[in-house]
Amino acid sequence: MISVEEATRRVLATARPLPAETVPLPAAVGRVLLEPLYADRDFPPFHRVAMDGIALAFEAVAAGQTTFPIAATQLAGMVPQPLADSQTAVEIMTGAVLPPGTDTVVRYEDLQFHEVNGQRVAALQVAPPAAGHNIHHQAADRRQGDLLLPAGVRLSPAEIAVAATIGAAALPVARALRVAVVSTGDELVELTQTPLPHQIRRSNAYMVQAALRQAGAESEAFHFNDDQDALRQGLPPLLDSFDALVLSGGVSKGQADFLPAMLQELGVQQLFHEVRQRPGKPFWFGEKPRGAVVFALPGNPVSTFVNFYQYVLPWVRRCQQPQGYRAQPTALLATDFSFAPPLTYFLPVRLELAPYGHWLAHPQPIGGSGDLASLLHCDAFLRLPPELTEFKAGDAFPLVQFRGLGS
Amino acid sequence: MISVEEATRRVLATARPLPAETVPLPAAVGRVLLEPLYADRDFPPFHRVAMDGIALAFEAVAAGQTTFPIAATQLAGMVPQPLADSQTAVEIMTGAVLPPGTDTVVRYEDLQFHEVNGQRVAALQVAPPAAGHNIHHQAADRRQGDLLLPAGVRLSPAEIAVAATIGAAALPVARALRVAVVSTGDELVELTQTPLPHQIRRSNAYMVQAALRQAGAESEAFHFNDDQDALRQGLPPLLDSFDALVLSGGVSKGQADFLPAMLQELGVQQLFHEVRQRPGKPFWFGEKPRGAVVFALPGNPVSTFVNFYQYVLPWVRRCQQPQGYRAQPTALLATDFSFAPPLTYFLPVRLELAPYGHWLAHPQPIGGSGDLASLLHCDAFLRLPPELTEFKAGDAFPLVQFRGLGS
């Protein structure tokens, strides 16, 4: 049996980069860019007026002039009009091009206006300190040809806006992962069926599909009874056409748990079976050469859940963004906790945001019932290492979060 | 001018609950449930075998018996067979119904098997300590009729799995918010056009639409030049058919900034104009009675961005989930910082996850350039209060996060 850390390493080592597909800009949010984007012109592309007010030549201010007849008015989007007479000014709006012949903007707050013979005149209340004031100069932020977004970034709304600025109407992004979600077990019936007294409805597959959907992966669901012939026929096409298979059930020591042998018979190489952890120990993991990666998770709902968030989700992220760095979040245990077996224990916790910006994790032991309903009041698992038995309030441990908070 | 806190209160006070729509279970992840869900039967629905092994009558163990002939084998999903002879046992798999006549399960790890005259016999290596061992008892987690999910919860994968368990093939959830994203400004051209030297491409609308999409809201984009007649004609249908309008540009003191007056002329009641903050001060906010809420954001890209995350996104969340509690995350300033004006300052920061589970915020001043490209290396704004001038390393401040980390 291997450790959680070794199992995680072996899982992540099988992540494969995804090929590109081109999607329209609005659909690209959350996706990973596969080609770099460069500035098509300077940022800003011209000396951009940064405040509403007047544009003037600073030499006139330096010479002591304090009132400026308004020679023209220029709004954003207008073709700039050169200032012919440096004793006058252009009334000007934020976003406009600085008119040739001017080099300084004085904002409305620092001006008073009056009329002289029907001529609008601005009087300086606060003189500008230097030329260049209130101007966002051409190329101050980026030069034409500069790298704006490197390949490999995940596109958040800020990146989408920058891509819009350079006219990228569509972007090459990593295509969505395609995952087959396979449930096995004679005791399971479909959602819409009424179970007999000894049956239950399929729920793990819905959990896995929902979590994949949140992660931006596509999935399709398949169900097989505990019937070796059906699996022998049904699995090979899935192994050849999906990036990954997520199975739940059939990997323990029971008589109906023939999946590990069956997968190897179908050409899937076992990379490990069983991890030193609770819950979720009987996890089987393998990869078919030139085919799918196979996560065969134990079928107990909480075991499926823990292993999805510890192994499957990080693998999905790594495939989407091979260079992506993700900090491993940690939280502080809120109360003492004991766990004796030499296994990594995934302790269900409710998270509380403490005033100084750290997370407090309140243990919510669920008594090993395997019931997902008992996780409804939890937000995460705290991953307690196997070497320790007593875990003290205030100690920090890695966090495996399954519910968004504050987002 | 009002404070950021007062502005936020007034914005959130206009949040309206959304009507229900029914969506298929897989599409309900991330949505807010509008009707409670109850257990359709006990959880578990029967005495559920929790380990692979044998089921027996504890009275035989108590009487000193240590070997048990296997009378039958029962896999999960099989109709349970009563144990006729309490001196025998049923070989049994996880998930099966406990057979009538048995009350205890012994796992394979605590057994050895041998054959006696062709009869499979299990010998106890570790005797079970009491009746009921390794059984997940009927109704241990929930009773039929118990509340499983109250109305108002946001459906994460755990809730989806629980809904599947009770056969909820479709769920009543809050319908998506519908937002009109309106850009104004003669200087703006479409993404696919080549701008003239004094023009730039629309980018704010793409940013806002991307962020709304991430938040689960639907949006449609509209553009108007700085033309009062076009706005007077174009805005009323939007005010009557969308939940909200998000405008950017046209709310400052400039000559083309006629939006506040125009909106009031169209029946939108002003709730405030201008907030004591930088950037983003000229924010105008109003509501049309029986119509849309109107966020008229300043058009400088960084101002639009700050105000979207400080006001629009929390309003969207409040509409989706009126009872939703969200902790206000905080982060610790990593280095000293000064800001003198009596305004709330939204300081761009890069976040670092510190070893004890808190966030360190590294200031990344962007020089007031208003350029979104300068936010590409930032993750959040730290909201620095107006009362202070000197902000010390190690002090905690509220965090307005715009990029997901560790999720």
TrEMBL record, chains A, B:
Cofactor requirements of the protein: Mg(2+)
Gene3D superfamilies: MoaB/Mog-like domain (3.40.980.10), MoeA, C-terminal, domain IV (2.40.340.10), Molybdopterin biosynthesis moea protein, domain 2 (3.90.105.10), Molybdopterin biosynthesis moea protein, domain 3 (2.170.190.11)
Recorded metabolic or biological pathway in which this protein acts: Cofactor biosynthesis; molybdopterin biosynthesis
A family per Pfam: MoeA_N
Function: Catalyzes the insertion of molybdate into adenylated molybdopterin with the concomitant release of AMP.
PANTHER family in the record: GEPHYRIN, MOLYBDOPTERIN BIOSYNTHESIS PROTEIN
Name of the protein in its database record: Molybdopterin molybdenumtransferase
Catalytic activity: adenylyl-molybdopterin + molybdate = Mo-molybdopterin + AMP + H(+)
GO molecular function terms noted in the UniProt entry: metal ion binding; molybdopterin molybdotransferase activity
Keywords: Magnesium, Metal-binding, Molybdenum, Molybdenum cofactor biosynthesis, Transferase
Xref: InterPro entries: MoaB/Mog-like_dom_sf, MoaB/Mog_dom, MoCF_biosynth_CS, MoeA-like, MoeA_C_domain_IV, MoeA_C_domain_IV_sf, MoeA_linker/N, MoeA_linker/N_sf
GO biological process entries: Mo-molybdopterin cofactor biosynthetic process
EC code: 2.10.1.1
Magnesium among keywords: yes
Entry GO CC: cytosol
